[in-house]
Amino acid sequence: MNDRNSPLLSVRNLTIHYITDDGIVRAVNDISFDLEKGKTLGLVGETGAGKTTTALGIMNLVPDPPGKIISGQILVNGKDILKFKKNELKKYRGKVASMVLQDPMTALNPLITVGEQIAEVLRLHDKLSRADSYIKAAQMLELVGIPSDRINDYPHEFSGGMKQRVVIAIALACNPQLLIADEPTTALDVTIQAQVLSLIRDLIKKYGTSMILITHDLGVVTEICDEVAIMYAGQIVEKGDLEAVYEHTGHPYTRGLFGSLPSLAVKAHRLNPIEGLMPDPTDLPKGCAFHPRCPDKMPECVSRTPVVIETEPGHFVRCLLYE
Amino acid sequence: MAKKKKGQLLQIWRRLKKNPLSMLGMAILVILVLTAVFADFIAPYPYDLQNYGAAKQFPSKAHPFGTDNYGRDIFSRVVYGTRVSLQIGFISLTVGALIGTVLGTLSGYFGGRTDTVIMRFTDILMSIPKVVLAIAVASTLGPGLVNAMIAVAISSIPSFARVARASTLTVRDQEYIEAAKVIGAGNFRIIFRHILPNILAPIIVQATLGVGISIILAASLSFLGLGVEPPTPEWGAMLSAARTFIRDEWYMVLFPGLAIMLTVLALNLLGDGLRDALDPKLKA
Amino acid sequence: MHKLLEVKNLKKYFETKNGLLHAVDGVDFSIEEGKTLGVVGESGCGKSTLGRLVIRLIDPTDGKIIYEGKDITKVKCKGSLRREMQLIFQDPFSSLNPRMSVSQIIEEPLKIHKMCKNKAELRSKVDELMDTVGLAAKLSDSYPHELDGGRRQRIGIARALALNPKFIVCDEPVSSLDVSIQAQILNLMMDLQEDRKLTYMFISHDLSVVKHISDEIIVMYLGLVVEKCRADELFEHTLHPYSKALLSAIPEPTTKKKKEMKLIQGEITSPINPKPGCRFAARCSYVRDICRQAEPELKEVLPDHFVSCHFANEINNLKAN
């Protein structure tokens, strides 16, 4: 059913920098990936890996200044959204692509009822009348598991999990083709996280929405994603379908991430963390950015920047071990 | 993320430097302070030298700001007046700020009954207009430089108490206060080592803006005859003395008035800049 | 093995506008010297309050805290307690005074308790502590905001260790850290425990972290202990419906043998004026009438395995003993 030849989203050599007083923050460095219709990609990385900047790039929402999209293309349905004019962007955001943010406490306006916040989006993009927009808003609330008689309640009357459901309802109200969820469950308790994850999974399946899920949690990815991309220092260091990355892990950084996780299944006395710290994004190491922390470092890692290698069909690794 | 080591003061200075208006304010303030310190060398005449032969002279080379009805050189009086006005402004404000900050911090930190008593006291002070309060204090204590300062100091207590209390309330709930309790720190240590340094920024801003208000207040008191006594040159007193001549000898009013305006303006410009520079939200 | 800390029927209620908030509502446990007790639960279950109660940072409403055989529930002078019991905080950003340098933060407890005779001794003690927790000596004049979360958490640990305590309550010490840093800090804490014979009470919402570090675990729900047993036992025989739900909600980072996520309905109910009966009844899939009427007691269902559920035997196919 999917048109395999034309991906919904195609990011080509995207580079985004922040120009600050302390130097140039190299947040995203030459990343490329495709997302097919109806698929879900997990974008995994630690603080400062450039996940959120990538997401903002895809929405064309990188704050400028200090942010600058240095180069690259972001093709959605074949059109480069970085070249969009103001009114094209208005139609793109919310209607074609929308976003769910991490913190449901601050994502909602505390002075407006949740119903109005959903209805507003519908009036803006789908040109519904006031009455129709409220009918649809009530349906959306039911869809995310909130009784529609709460349509006139204010955000503070909801718990954290319920607020995140409202945020999801707003994001999906106009039935976008692409949903970007930036750590949507990080602020929630595990039992609530499980509920919200299963809600998102059901909804995107129902509507055939493509999704990019940004998270630091390798476990959450397995619940919901088809593919996963691991980011480090602004680059995608490994990408592939879940089984490839989780079972035949290629990149030493990905292996380090798995080693850092305490497992419920296996009893280990000590964890094997990655040594050292994230590099300073204003002063990235030469060669492979991961080499100062890498257990498999080779002499040439210091000088040569690795390129992306396809180690098995659909499994890409950016590491000199495989070149 | 490795960051270059920088003193916190240096960072604030760097941000302040970016704001040209507040740098202007600071420059004016530095000149005013230097004027006050070196008044003896700058003023061409003693401030109380009367010369009836040269009374009410229009500004000239010999008297750049003219002379008053006693023939005293207005320029010299304005220069010496800087000393008196800045003294009143800064000393009274410092006293008021100290008392207000301590009261506000105690009130915010301990809460409960302490809070109620202190805050109702400041509410009462606040409900009386500043000028009326200062007049009441000054007229009880009698006119004079020290009494004027006391009056101004008392009237500036409530605003500092409020700012300090509000800031303390936010800082009090920070985990590092709890952490200090865990390592066994007493209330005294917590207040002076952990709370005060963290609420200093808004208080400094309030103080910078407050000096201007205090100077105006002191001038108003003198204008009403409750402040500094003649022949001490104080800008407000000079205005008061000159007001009967405003029709024909307007320069007698103009220069002390300008001096007050310039000082208050400089302090406000600096205060605004400081507020932005100290804003923790902008901190890297 | 002797019990370092014992807690009996500990309660803490807070007065609120809407009624009495039962933060901790009758909790019993003990910790043996040199061991780690894990406390697991979701936000609002009272685990942080419990941690602050046992080190006497806040006063209990009722109950007893016995430390080294002495009843410390009513101790007024807490100075000596502070040297014995310390706390490591969750948020390494707000738990360090932004106006103090690294060395000032670490030396403060030493100064308060006058542990060092002179400046030189203080200096060398601070250097030693920084070395112990893996902080480079050149950082001693840095300010917290210049450092990353992992290094900040090391400062917090050094501060807690300064007074040479025996017992440390760790309140979600790794929850706000990245996974690779989290593993470094967990390893550090386990090394310190071994070297210094520390006893931990490790509070976390993350079952896998708690399992990793703990010897014994208590699972809390709305101020009550619902299950208590050895760490590995909890994962082999999960008996309480809430523990089961908690365990199955954790997304595991593997693509093999995916367990079916068992969702529990609804959200945590209010701890203010709780209704009689089992507090988990509103979300429990095994709920029956009695659950809404009588509060279950914490019973030993398997050896050293305590559960508070009316139907613990039945739903787990155990023979009643």
Overview of the molecule:
The complex is a heterotrimer of chains A (323), B (284) and C (321). Chain A contains 10 helices and 12 strands. Chain A is α/β, with parallel strands linked by helices. Chain A has an 8-stranded mixed sheet, with helices on both faces. In chain A, strand 9 and strand 10 form a beta hairpin. Chain A is globular and about 65 Å long. Chain B is mostly helical and 284 residues long. Helices cover 73% and strands 0% of the residues of chain B. The longest helix of chain B is centred in the first third of the chain and has 37 residues. Chain B is elongated and about 75 Å long. In chain B, 44% of the residues are buried. In chain C, the strands form 2 sheets. An 8-stranded mixed sheet of chain C has the order 6-7-8-3-9-10-12-11, sandwiched between helices. A 4-stranded antiparallel sheet of chain C has the order 2-1-4-5. The longest helix of chain C is centred in the middle third of the chain and has 18 residues. The model of chain C has no long low-confidence stretch (mean pLDDT 89). Chains in contact: A-B, A-C, B-C. Chains A and C meet through helix 7, helix 8, helix 9 and helix 10 of A and helix 5, helix 6, helix 7 and helix 9 of C.
List keywords for this structure.
heterotrimer, B: 284 residues, mainly alpha, 73% helix, elongated, disordered N terminus, C: alpha/beta, Rossmann fold, four-stranded antiparallel sheet, 11 helices, 12 strands, 31% helix
In short:
The complex is a heterotrimer of chains A (323), B (284) and C (321). Chain A has 323 residues and is an alpha/beta fold.
